[in-house]
Backbone:
């Protein structure tokens, strides 16, 4: 059985991916420094898959500790989720973001090379397309100017990994550009558990629905979109997780460098999400129109054709399932993992 090193495996997307790796017959080892995640997510995944998970609480910048893992285990590939991800915080703490996301990746990739595991899947983001709203984005759409350090680290790390693959064709590098992941595992055991006030739309909606927050602020209703609110490509986190298994299959075929959008190709507005959430769950989500949020764009959605064709992967779950599963998780875990 092949063993995959999963960095950031205790996080939202990482924990869902562990389940899909298990379903696909992979072994895995998780490394996570738990600064923005909870060990409880690993315990819940263990419950779902009925197996214990080798877990190491290690910061990727701790070269010695990370190297010990490579001595102990032989990895076939690495799925690299670990990184800081809050846009606003990254503007306040640029050095922390650059140091964590860049240095952590440098140490990791250096060890992958040293131990001759030249297969990596990197968590990138639609944020690399910058603030252009010429949609839908294809992988050939120009990369834009990211307005914040978080986005810049994603964009720069794409360049670093691309250069590495160009220099040594023995590497397989898959860059996955995620659109907006929402939803949760249908069991309601794992889901998104943000620290403090949520920055993203769906966790805010679920916290309003569960009574933790009074009202959703809708950031602008004067965009050039059908109802004036921002349009995004929401993707169920289970579909996104399956995209990583499809990327591993591409690595088995020695894909070299692969860049893929992981989205549904459908754009929904903020109000579409609110209304669908209310309808499928029978709960109300009071909201208030607020000014636009700095850095937001009107529309962002993918053309996922390349991933559909080359990875044989397609998002299968729709907005209703996303809303249902997000609510199921929040209802069962009103305080998230209670970090
Ligand atoms: C954000 C990040 C993006 C990151 C992604 C991770 C910004 C500018 N972009 O994307 O870099 O990769 O999260 O998931 O932060 N909205 C509200 N009220 C809220 C929250 C959001 O109206 O309380 C609206 C936003 O204006 C936007 C939509 O909901 O139109 C989605 O917002 P969000 O979930 O934060 O995702 P993005 O901004 O698309």
Residues:
């Amino acid at each position: 059985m092949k063993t995959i090193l999963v960095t950031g495996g205790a996080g939202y997307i990482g924990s869902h991916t562990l389940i899909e790796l298990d379903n696909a017959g992979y072994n895995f080892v998780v490394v996570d420094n738990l600064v923005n995640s909870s060990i409880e997510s690993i315990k819940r995944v263990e419950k779902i898959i009925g197996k214990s998970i080798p877990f190491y609480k290690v910061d990727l910048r701790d070269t010695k500790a990370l190297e010990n893992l490579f001595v102990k285990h032989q990895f076939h590939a690495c799925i690299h989720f670990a990184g800081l991800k809050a846009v606003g915080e990254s503007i306040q703490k640029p050095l922390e973001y650059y140091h964590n996301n860049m240095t952590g990746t440098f140490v990791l990739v250096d060890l992958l090379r040293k131990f001759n595991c030249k297969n990596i899947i990197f968590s990138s983001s639609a944020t690399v397309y910058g603030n252009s709203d010429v949609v839908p984005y294809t992988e050939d759409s120009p990369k834009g100017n990211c307005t914040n350090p978080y986005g810049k680290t994603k964009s720069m790390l794409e360049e670093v990994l691309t250069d590495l693959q160009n220099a040594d064709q023995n590497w397989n590098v898959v860059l996955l550009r995620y659109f907006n992941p929402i939803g949760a595992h249908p069991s309601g055991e794992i889901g998104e558990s943000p620290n403090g006030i949520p920055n993203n739309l769906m966790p805010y909606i679920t916290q309003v629905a569960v009574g933790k927050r009074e009202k959703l602020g809708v950031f602008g209703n004067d965009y050039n979109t059908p109802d004036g609110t921002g349009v995004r490509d929401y993707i169920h986190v289970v579909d996104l997780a399956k995209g990583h298994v499809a990327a591993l299959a591409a690595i088995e075929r020695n894909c070299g460098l692969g860049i893929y959008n992981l989205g549904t190709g459908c754009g929904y507005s903020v109000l579409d999400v609110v209304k669908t959430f209310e309808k499928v769950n029978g709960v109300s989500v009071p909201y208030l129109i607020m000014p636009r949020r700095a850095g937001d764009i009107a529309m962002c959605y993918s053309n996922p054709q390349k991933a559909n064709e080359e990875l044989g992967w397609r998002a299968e779950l729709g907005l209703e399932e996303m809303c249902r599963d997000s609510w199921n998780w929040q209802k069962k875990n009103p305080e998230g993992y209670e970090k």
